[in-house]
Amino acid sequence: MLRSWLIFLALALSVLRLASAARGQGEPPAKPQIVVTSTAGFRAEFLGELAYCEQRYLTLAGGVPAKKYSRRTAEGMRSVGGLFAHV
Predict the structure, then answer these.
(1) How far apart are CA 35 and CA 87, in angstroms?
(2) Global pTM exceeds 0.85
């Protein structure tokens, strides 16, 4: 299980690096505009973080070419598309 997570982490970092290289080096990713109805409290903070992570994840998924979604890093491992669907 630990090996699976390490492989997923390495894959995710590789895709992020490729996506940032495609956008232009030196530019930090822009934090998405988050619409939250309440401005204080745990719920607002949680929803803000969830929206931020969701946007980053969608950016990561959009940076992967469609033909790479069926790629598996090793036998018995999930495909890239399967990892995105799992999360």
Answers:
(1) 23
(2) no
